[in-house]
Amino acid sequence: MTFSRQRLRRLLSALAAASALTAAPAALAWSHLGHWLVGELAQPLLTPAAQQQVAVLLQGEPNPTLAGVASWADELRGGSDADLARKTAKWHYVDLDPERCDYQPPRDCPGGNCVIAAIDTQSKILADTAQPLEARRDALKFLVHFIGDVHQPLHAGARPMAEGGDDAGGNKYQVSLRTAVAPQGRNARRQVAGGPIPTNLHTVWDYYALESAILPPEKYAAQLRQGGMAPVAPQALGGPADWAVESCRGINAQSLYPRGEDGEWQHKLGGAYLDAQRPYAEARVRLAAERLATVLNAALK
C-alpha cells in the first residue's frame, strides 16, 4: 500500500497522538478552577505575618496571590519548564492500596516521589529562611498546588483490584458524559456541550465536577465561603499522609465509581451524577484551603 505525503503525515500525527495518550502521566488534579478556588479561599485565612511573606515571595509573579500561582505546577507540563515538569511528575499523586487505603512509604512512595513526601519536603524548604528566595518561592507554589492535589480523591486511589483492576485513578475508566459544560481535552473542538463527551472518570473529577456549577470563579468562591471558614487547628491538622488516606477512603464512601441498580459499573454519566457529587468535591476544596492556610501560617511565622 502506498501513501501520499499528506496521508503519511496524517498517519504519523495520529500515531504520535495515540502514543502520547497511552504514555501520558496521570491526569491533572482539579482543573484551573479547582486549584484557583483552593488558593482564593486560603488567602484570607493567612496570618498577617504569613500574608506579608507571601507578598515578598510572590513579588514579580503575574498574579502574586495564592490563587494566581495555584496552577503553576501543572503549567510546567505545558513547556514553561519541561525538565522540572518531568522531575516533579510523580509529586502530584500517590497510589494507595484501594482495598486498605493505608500508606506504606516503601511501597507507595519509593524515593520520596509522591504527593505526600512532596508536601513534607516543600513545607520544610518554605520554612527554612536560609534557603534561597527562589527555592522558597517554588516551595510555596508547589504547596498551594499539591495540597489541592492530595484532596482530589482520585489522586490517592482507585477501584479495588477485585472490583475492576488498576485503572490509574480513574484515568482508564472510560465514560460517556452528557453535560452543559464546555468540553475539555485534545478533541474538545469536535465535541459539543450537551454531549455525549468521551472522557474518563478522572477527568470528570478534575474538571467537570466543579465546572458544572457554571458559576463565575469569584461568585463560586463567595458561595463556598458561606457558613464561615477558618484554618484547621494545628492539633487537628494531621499530615499529608492522613489527607491522602482520607481521600482514598472517600472513593468508596462517596460512590465515586457509579453503579446501576443492577450493581453493574456505569459508564454513561450525566448531570445527575455531577449534581450528586459536586457537594463532596466542594467540601474537599474547602478543606484543602483550610489546611493549606494552616500549613502556610506555621511555615511563615
Task: Name its key features.
301 residues, mainly alpha, P1 Nuclease, three-stranded mixed beta sheet, disordered N terminus, TAT_signal, endonuclease, S1/P1nuclease, S1/P1 nuclease
Explain what the structure shows.
- With 301 residues, the chain is mainly α.
- It has one domain: P1 Nuclease, CATH 1.10.575.
- Helix content is 50%, strand content 3%.
- The chain contains 13 helices and three strands; from the N terminus they run αααααααααββαααβα.
- The chain has a three-stranded mixed beta sheet.
- Helix 2 (32-42) packs across helix 13 (271-299) and helix 8 (115-127) runs antiparallel to helix 9 (133-149).
- The N and C termini lie far apart (70 Å).
Strand content: under 5%
How many domains? 1
Q: Find the CATH topology.
A: P1 Nuclease
- Count of alpha/pi helices: 13
Strand line-up in the sheet with most strands: 2-1-3
| Percentage of residues in helical conformation | 40-55%
* CATH architecture assignment name: Orthogonal Bundle
Instruction: List the helices and strands in order.
Output: HHHHHHHHHEEHHHEH
Question: What is the 3D shape?
Answer: globular
Q: What is the β-strand count? A: 3
Radius of gyration: 20 Å
Distance between the termini: 70 Å
Low-confidence stretches at least 5 residues in length (pLDDT < 50)? 1-26
- CATH homologous superfamily annotation: P1 Nuclease
CATH class: Mainly Alpha
Q: Give the averaged pLDDT, no decimals.
A: 88
* Biggest sheet details: 3 strands, mixed
